[in-house]
Amino acid sequence: MTHAGLFLTFEGIDGSGKSTQARMLAEHLQGSGHEVVLTREPGGSPGAEEIRSLVLEGDPDRWSAETEILLFTAARRDHLERTIEPALAAGKIVICDRFADSTRMYQGLSRGDLRGLVDQLHSLMIGREPDMTMLIDMDPDTGLSRAKGRQGTEERFEDFGPALQQQMRAGFLALADEFSDRFRVVDGNRDMDSVAQDVTDIVMAALR
Ligand SMILES: Nc1ncnc2c1ncn2[C@@H]1O[C@H](COP(=O)(O)OP(=O)(O)OP(=O)(O)O)[C@@H](O)[C@H]1O
Ligand SMILES: [Mg+2]
Which residues form the Thymidylate kinase-like domain (predicted)? Predict the structure, then answer.
């Protein structure tokens, strides 16, 4: 590792339990004396949170696919500069709810095959991957019904139907194969404490 801290991300389809598990892991690690920064994408720094409302609110056709990738990358760059890298340099554990793998999937796949563009921009402007990525894998129908239970103004992507969710699940599993050195796949089709136990075991083993 080129830094003192540990950079962990959570990925998976909508409603798979990423935010829940990221929070539970942060609480567990804090409880065992670690310094933890819990953050999320898009967002995670004041500037990136402003971009978050631009990409998650409003008309689904508000941005072209290409402009959207630029906005996500701009937000990530700010998040990296202002939040993630300073925390890692200070030796903290950074837990991030979604990161570049979500852009590879959602912006890379949902409106045509733009994965190449996403990867080019990533290597140009971001240039780093997490130390470890937890993929919460689960049945899309369950994920969709969990996600639909929520209300809010961040609805630009809420109309992804079951077919796209199936495609995303398969895409995330393929990504886990592609980056098998850093991905750990966790079965999300269980109660949250069982999922959290697996996540804790994986991370504690990595910390030793
Ligand atoms: N293992 C679980 N069993 C049952 N319900 C769960 C489980 N994990 C999370 N939930 C509930 O499902 C909903 C979605 O969970 P959560 O917000 O953590 O998912 P997410 O992956 O962050 O979703 P999104 O992609 O939309 O941000 C929440 O209401 C949460 O309380
Ligand atoms: Mg979430």
Answer: 10-198
For the annotated binding site for ATP, the residues are 12-19
Count Cβ atoms within 10 A of the Cβ of residue 111 and give its class: 0-12 exposed, 13-18 middle, 19 or more buried. Answer: middle
Q: Which atom of ligand 1 is nearest to the CA of 194?
A: 1
Dihedral sign for Cα 89, 125, 74, 186, please: negative
Q: Which domain holds residue 117?
A: 6-207
What's the structural domain count of the chain?
Answer: 1
Say what the pTM is: 0.95
Q: In CATH, what number is assigned to the domain containing residue 70? A: 3.40.50.300
Residue 45 domain flag = yes
In a domain, 31, yes or no: yes
* Atom number in ligand 1 closest to CA 10: 21
Copy the structure tokens of residue 113.
């095959």
